[in-house]
Amino acid sequence: MVDPHSKQSKTEGYRSRAAYKLLEIDTKFKIFGKKTKNIVDLGFAPGAWTQVALNKSKARGVEPNILGVDLINCSPPEGSSFIQGDIFSKKTHEEISAHFQGPIQLVLSDMMANTSGIGDNDHYASMELCDGVLLLALKMLQKNGSLVMKFYTGKEDQLLQKRLEKVFHKVHKMKPAACRAESREMYFVCLKKRKDNVAIEEVFDGEEGRV
């Protein structure tokens, strides 16, 4: 049976079915505002989220500056840019900063580590990626900026949520309808960063040991 979202993505010109997850998130939380210009898309390939960001921005009369980042080399949609890099790399952070030359209003992350089929291992790998995304957001996301981040559910969901709540005024957890029912992926939608410079120690210190 053909997945309806995969079929729809081909009809509507999106590079993957993942587009419909972000479309649903924006419908509910309005993450693309008139002041949302600088956007970084982590785990970019094949580029469907950047396509959504481009369309949503233009519909709101915004000319966006969107940068995709991925370990896999991938051609960006027209109107966006791309760098191949690792978000845990200082060099990649420097390249992102150099591209924008100013604050970022929105961080998107649809990253997921290659799954092993072992639930706990996949969860911890996802948590490590999420920590990397959060560190980048701490450094580069402006006050009142937003973050959308995929994660693989497991024992440390609440620990991650507590970290996010130290940084953002509102943190929502959701599973878009476009996610496959059997998948353990979900999303944190984090709105209104509390301040420009949040110390890493404020977010990661004082936690109980990892499970």
What would you note in describing this structure?
The protein has 211 residues and is an alpha/beta fold. Among the domains are: 1-37 and 44-64 and 90-105, no CATH class; 121-140 and 154-171 and 179-193, no CATH class. Helix content is 38%, strand content 23%. It has seven helices and seven strands. It has helices spanning 4-12, 19-29, 48-59, 90-100, 119-140, 157-167, 200-204, and strands spanning 38-42, 65-70, 81-84, 104-109, 141-152, 168-174, 185-193. It has a seven-stranded mixed β-sheet with strand order 3-2-1-4-5-7-6, sandwiched between helices. The termini are far apart. 39% of the residues are buried. Pfam families: FtsJ (PF01728). Keywords: Methyltransferase, rRNA processing, S-adenosyl-L-methionine, Transferase. Residues 14-193 form the Ribosomal RNA methyltransferase FtsJ domain. It comes from Candidozyma auris (Yeast). InterPro entries: RNA_methyltr_RlmE (IPR050082), RNA_MeTrfase_FtsJ_dom (IPR002877), rRNA-MeTfrase_E (IPR015507), SAM-dependent_MTases_sf (IPR029063).
